[in-house]
Each structure stands twice: as C-alpha cells, then as structure tokens.
Amino acid sequence: MSDAPDMEDLVNAEEPTFQHVMACVFGIQEHESRTYLVLREHPGSTVEELAEVLDRDRSNVNRSLTTLLEKNLAERERRLLDPGGYVYQYTATPLEEAKGMLHAALDEWAETVHGRIEEFGDPGRDPERSQP
Length: 132
Description:
By secondary structure, the protein is mainly α. The chain contains 7 helices and 2 strands; from the N terminus they run αααααββαα. β1 (74-80) and β2 (86-92) form a beta hairpin. InterPro entries: Tscrpt_reg_TrmB_N, WH-like_DNA-bd_sf, WH_DNA-bd_sf. It comes from Halorarum salinum.
C-alpha cells in the first residue's frame, strides 16, 4: 500500500499547494513532487547535483527520478564525459505540459464521479443495489 496522497486528501485539503496537488493527482509521494519542482529550477541536473540541492541520499533521489520518468514528469538524457563514460542529466517536463496532464487527470476523475452520481438509484446500473 502506498503512502502517496490520494484524491480524498486533495478534496479534503482547504488550500492545497501545487506540490500537494501533484502528489495526489499523479499518485506520487510529496518528496517526488518536490524533486520535480527542484528539477524545474535546475534543468539538466545529475542525480548527484539534485541530491545535494534536495539534501537527500542519491539512492532516494534516483528512486524519485525513476517515478517521475514513469509518470512522464521528467526526461533523461545521456551526456558523454570527456575522460570517457557518461552521466545522465534530468530535466522536468515543462510546467504547462504538467499542468495539462493535471487538468486531464482531474477532468477524467470528475467525469467518473459524475457518472457514479448519475448511476446512483438506477437498479440496473447501481452496483451497490445489486449486491446481496
């Protein structure tokens, strides 16, 4: 079971922050939404650089970045190093795109809730009424 905030947390929040909204809507931890916000301020950062800014262990930052990549909230690019080898640099998904994703997710959720409201009381469509 995840400790990520959910829609109920969002509905019950009197004045949710953008970070809280992101965590609830995308089902991520608040430290992951904080990583997104810091990454917006430091585009092209490496895990090591982000760990320093966030004051978190590199392995924790790496896990946060993996989640952000899975949720399409960040991009990763490989940069070759002069002495050989490479390093990954991370950039946050542009804010307007992230806002669009938030709006779309909330609209989809609202449609689902409106549908459940309309189904309520209809014996042919209301699952609560059809259960023994």
